[in-house]
């Protein structure tokens, strides 16, 4: 069994137990399976996958046929150009799986929009997205404004959404974005070289991130691997677990927890690796317990002492281990601060 799938039971149990669910309800959210044998190939609906044709309408036809059945939309190997702007980006339906082959890419048609979405999941339940690559237009974006070009946008009363093995890269904004969602899991995903965030979490209950990679986020603030940050007072982030993931070379840091505008609590960050970026920054989130941030590693490079001008000094990888979770809090990996609102003149 894939290592990603094996880790799910113990990991997601944390969030479900916090919600008062019985042990029988603590299912493995990463080991997703379609509930129907129906499979619709997007090429049978007219998609070309040739890197030139606008395949948006053909892929949406497959989605609309499968939605509500528990079946699967299959995207075979190829590059599928998709429209991410306007009122008609690709919208997934309830009770369905979108499965991309390992060589399949949904590539955003370059645009000048301040916001776009490659895949949108809203007002939906029991949705899975598995495999493949989502490729944004960051390199060929036609405008200079905005920061909201998303790979996968999850929001507006979604429940039980699982993203497995998906790579989201070169987005004008975020690789992944979650707002108003319950029971969301990111298993073995990659967010690479996105402009604003790897993953933004705005309003969510019971969210899991495991065995994933967030790297080289840079371009516009905040530029973190993962940002947990409500936008409004009524928004709340609770029962989140981030585990067994890597945060590498993100411009501002690995994880940001910012509670100035909303409520954040019950966050666990364990067994992660941070390299080439600050590990964790916590701002205005007093309910986030340091004791729940533990067993992480921080890798740095230190040049060995030189023996003189003629001696080459090889950089040495230095690994700092955070305190074991059973021993209490260990503040070395986080910077925790409270900020005050600026007074208007």
| Count of discrete domains | 1
Strand content: over 45%
Q: What fold name stands as the CATH topology?
A: Pectate Lyase C-like
Q: Which residues form runs of ≥5 with pLDDT under 50?
A: 1-27
Distance between the termini: 62 Å
Helix share, percent: under 10%
CATH domain class: Mainly Beta
User: Mind telling me the C-alpha Rg?
Assistant: 21 Å
Note the overall shape.
Answer: globular
Order of helices and strands: HEEHEEEEEEEEEEEEEEEEEEEEEEEEE
| Chain-averaged pLDDT | 88
The CATH superfamily is known as Single-stranded right-handed beta-helix, Pectin lyase-like
Most strands sheet: 16 strands, parallel
Q: Supply the number of helical segments.
A: 2
The SS-based structural class is mainly beta
Strands, count: 27
Level-2 CATH architecture: 3 Solenoid
Descriptive report:
- There is one protein chain.
- This protein is mainly beta.
- The chain has a single domain, classed as Single-stranded right-handed beta-helix, Pectin lyase-like (Pectate Lyase C-like, 3 Solenoid).
- The chain has 2 helices and 27 strands.
- The chain has helices spanning 3-18, 56-66, and strands at residues 39-41, 50-54, 72-75, 78-82, 90-91, 96-100, 104-108, 115-122, 125-130, 133-135, 148-164, 167-169, 174-187, 190-192, 197-210, 213-215, 224-228, 236-243, 246-248, 253-258, 263-270, 273-275, 280-283, 293-294, 297-303, 315-321, 334-337.
- The strands form 2 sheets. It has a 16-stranded parallel beta sheet that branches. An 11-stranded mixed beta sheet has the order 2-4-7-10-12-14-16-19-22-25-26, with no helix packed on it.
């Amino acid at each position: 069994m894939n290592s990603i799938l094996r880790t799910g039971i113990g990991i997601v149990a944390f969030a479900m137990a916090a919600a008062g669910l019985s042990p029988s309800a603590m299912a493995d959210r990463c080991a997703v399976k379609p509930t129907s044998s129906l499979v619709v190939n997007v090429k049978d609906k007219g998609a070309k996958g040739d890197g030139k044709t606008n395949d948006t309408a053909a892929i949406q036809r497959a989605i609309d046929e499968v939605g509500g059945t528990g079946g699967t939309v299959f995207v075979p190997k190829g590059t599928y150009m998709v429209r991410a702007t306007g009122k008609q980006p690709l919208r997934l339906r309830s009770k369905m799986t979108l499965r991309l082959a390992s060589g399949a890419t949904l590539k955003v048609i370059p645009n000048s929009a301040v916001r776009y979405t490659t895949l949108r999941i809203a007002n939906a339940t029991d949705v899975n997205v598995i495999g493949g690559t989502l490729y944004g237009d960051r390199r060929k974006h036609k405008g200079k404004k905005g920061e909201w070009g998303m790979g996968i946008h999850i929001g507006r009363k979604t429940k039980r959404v699982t993203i497995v093995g998906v790579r989201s890269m070169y987005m004008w904004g975020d690789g992944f974005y979650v707002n108003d969602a319950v029971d969301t899991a990111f298993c073995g995903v990659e967010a690479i070289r996105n402009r604003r965030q790897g993953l933004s979490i705005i309003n969510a209950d019971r969210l899991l991130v495991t065995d994933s990679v967030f790297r080289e986020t840079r371009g516009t603030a905040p530029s973190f691997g993962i940002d947990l940050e409500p936008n409004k007072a009524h928004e709340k982030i609770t029962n989140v677990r981030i585990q067994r993931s890597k945060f590498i070379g993100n411009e501002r840091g690995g994880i940001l927890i910012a509670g100035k505008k909303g409520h954040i609590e019950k966050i666990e960050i364990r067994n992660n690796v941070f390299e080439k970026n600050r590990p964790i920054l916590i701002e205005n989130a007093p309910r986030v317990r340091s004791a729940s941030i533990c067993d992480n590693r921080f890798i740095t490079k230190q040049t060995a002492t030189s023996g003189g001008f003629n001696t080459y000094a090889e950089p040495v990888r230095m690994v700092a281990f955070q305190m074991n979770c059973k021993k209490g809090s260990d503040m070395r990996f986080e910077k925790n601060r409270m900020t005050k609102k600026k007074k208007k003149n």
